[in-house]
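Dear colleagues,

As part of the handover before I leave the project, I'm documenting each prediction I ran so the next person doesn't have to rerun anything. This entry is a single chain, and its sequence is reproduced below.
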Amino acid sequence: MAKPYSKADSTRHALKEVKEKAKPKPIPKRSKKRIIADAEYTTLRFMFLTKNDKCQICKISTSDQVHHKHSGKDRAKHYLDVPTWMALCHDCHNILHLTPKESREKGYLF
């Protein structure tokens, strides 16, 4: 005797179809140009954080992160543009990104 069709069977079938369709996209490989830019960024970042050892917002904590003032589509264009960087501590960097409106008003984000 055949098993009666239930709503649970329908849900399982729908979930199976979604899982089959929603395969993750592979991570794109970095271009040679980007690999070279990343190597240069690493060097510039080290020199920048060495020169600017205190957070530029709180002026108390040691800076350990580079904040890029340009966001969105302009970010790639200004990736290696050191005058658009800020040396920040972890906490100030998080606050800056959690409050984008205020950060733009103060000139920390463009």
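The beta strands are 65-68, 85-88. Residues 32-51 form the longest helix (20 residues).

All the best with the project,
I.
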